[in-house]
Sequence to fold (125 residues):
Amino acid sequence: MKEQTEVGKLKEGRYVVVEDEPCRIVSIAISKPGKHGAAKSRIDCIGIFDGVKRSIVQPVSAKTYVPVVERKMAQVISIAGTTLQLMDVKDFEMFELTVSEEQAGSVEPGQEIAYISSLGKKKLE
Fold:
């Protein structure tokens, strides 16, 4: 899910959708309005799921999308190498996540862990 908002209302530390990827805003620079133009906003951000740095330049009055980022809890059902089978604690949804070796080594079946969900993607916190 995503919502629409004005670029001028965004703040550092919040989220924005860039190239269909939810990103955390790192910095915002706003230029002054010129003689014939509107104020522009340059937003530098980092993707939540892929870690890629992105930036956008838009007028302050333009509309952009803000993703709905949810922090949830899940119980580890099983571990197979670097693939975790998890079950959401609230709605009992079953899903699998591929994690790094060190993350897989630090969890054990039956343990509850936090994860982030946004735009159909999931990741351990």
Summary: The helical segments are 101-106.
